[in-house]
Amino acid sequence: VANGQPATDATSVPPATPIDETTAIGPTDLNAKALTDAFSKLSVICGIYKPEKGATLVEPFTDAAEHADIVIVDWFLEAGSSLAAKDILLRVLTNDAGEGGRLRLIAIYTSQPDLPRLAQELLVEIRRSSPAVEPLVLEKNGRVLTGRSTRICFFNKIDSLACIIREGSAS
Asked: Could you report the per-residue pLDDT of 6-63, keeping only the tens digit for each?
């Protein structure tokens, strides 16, 4: 235990096996208008980036994220792969470190189960690929990575199979 945080073995974690997101009970498409309207009513600016099929994901998203205090990323920006999301997150964190740090909240939104495994997978990738990034620790709940000025939180989509499984095991 260091700084009141549990020790975390971040040497290797095999990537989680993706579940089929089409098994979600509700729609998995984002209603961008409803979302931006809801934020607007709270006087919060909300920008959404959705590239055309085949367009690059990483650079435009990273450029936009540089100006945002809160960044929300879908874990699977490409079908069954978290590589683009990880690349975006690593670039954002590396850019922040290069500028001397920045207060940053990142929310990762997914239909995938086992959020602690995904958080551990990301922590391993950050430590392996971006040594300049501030040290992050995995919180006791297994779904939050915390650093001096950065917090990365994992959330399940409300109608995802992961939420249904979790609710079923709680009954």
From this structure: 444 445 555 655 555 444 444 456 678 888 888 889 888 888 877 777 777 788 888 8
CB atoms within 10 A of CB 88: 21
Cβ atoms within 10 A of the Cβ of 85, count? 23
> Hunting for tokens 């998995």 — which residue is that?
28
Q: Which residues pair with 106 in a beta bridge?
A: 71, 152
Q: Are 107 and 70 in contact (CB under 8 A)?
A: yes
For range 101-115, the mean pLDDT = 90
What contacts 76, CB < 8 A, 6 or more positions away? 18, 21, 82, 85, 110, 111, 112
Give burial (CB, 10 Å; 0-12/13-18/19+) of 151: middle
Q: What is the pLDDT of residue 58?
A: 85
60 touches 77 (CB < 8 A): no
Residues 6+ apart with CB under 8 A from 73: 61, 85, 88, 89, 106, 107, 108, 109
